[in-house]
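[SOLVED] Predicted holo structure with guanosine-5'-triphosphate

Edit: marking solved, answer below. Original request kept for reference. I posted the sequence and ligand SMILES and asked for the 3D complex as structure tokens.
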Amino acid sequence: MEAPRPAEVAQPTKVQQPEEKHANEQPKPLQPPQQLPQTAPPKTEEKPVEEQKKEEKPKSRFSFFDFLRYKTIKEEDITDLIEEFRYQLLEADVSYEVSEKILEDLKNSLVGKKVSRSEELEKIVLDSLKKSIEEILTKNRGFDLIEEIKQKGKKPYVIVFFGVNGVGKTTTIAKVAYMLKKQGLSSIIAASDTFRAAAQEQLAYHAQKLEVPLVKGKYGGDPAAVAFDAISSAKSRGIDVVLVDTAGRMHVDSDLVEELKRVVRISKPDLRVLVLDSLAGNDALEQAKYFENNVGYDAVILTKVDADAKGGIVLSLAYELKKPVIYLGIGQDYDNLIPFSPDWFIKRIFQ
Ligand SMILES: Nc1nc2c(ncn2[C@@H]2O[C@H](COP(=O)(O)OP(=O)(O)OP(=O)(O)O)[C@@H](O)[C@H]2O)c(=O)[nH]1
């Protein structure tokens, strides 16, 4: 993986330059870096070219660590640095607990170290961050759905999708149907969202485009009956997978939740997928807790990750849900569904 370029990593905007130093001045304490590793280079103030050239030093990108060189790093030496990282992580929607884990790991990897070159420090910091994130992301690493379906060998393999309104359930089902088709698995969609009139048309559109059969329900009809019919149809036609769409429900709506429980009871799914919108930030965690306590789920698909510049919620979810995040939705096209991969996420943070 490519290490961050100079501009992406903390720059010593306030570090004393040698030529500015006064003879009797004491070494300055660490100044908080203005920017820490992030996806986009920070915007710096425009300065005249001459001035910029004068300020340019062939220094390491972690030269704000200069004062730490040749000495054993103590915890108090890195207080400002840790605080700045904490701020950045929380700003990126990484939950407090996850941020603390990352910072604790970072502290442990720095305190007590004696380094002679700032490049060494830079490497320690980056390695520590990557290792923490990898640990968090791999803890509940998603299983391979295609493998799982093939290995289980049950026909049909039933998947029920649920989540609150507008998270992307219908779009995700279309993406999954597309992915299954590419893998040589047939599917049928159950339009069990009988609550929202347009949901049936939306699914009919996708089903037609993807050439996947669809079992529709009547507006206001029994969603569990639609799922049941789709499963029966799959059995008689030898279809591999049933994808059950359900009405988006606000988790405060107890009637809809009861209805969802019924759909789950009747369709006896092999997999219950909770669809969460990454743009919901920490609210997605609350939704997940609610669905876990009221319906139960086996795996998560996180949508709209393409629109979530921060991405911290992916980390928080992976850490706190204790459930596998199997796919990420990264756009509105059928092929915009990717397996959840720590490498992808780490690259996103550090590139
Ligand atoms: N950018 C982006 N948009 C997405 C993604 N997934 C879904 N969307 C968009 O999100 C909007 C809502 O998606 P739907 O699939 O209708 O959501 P839903 O959960 O079925 O909605 P309800 O049936 O109302 O509960 C649509 O405009 C989708 O195109 C994604 O991964 N990235």
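OP edit: Residues 165-171, 193, 196, 199, 248, 303-304, 306-307, 329-332, 336 surround guanosine-5'-triphosphate (CB under 6 Å). Thanks to everyone who chimed in.
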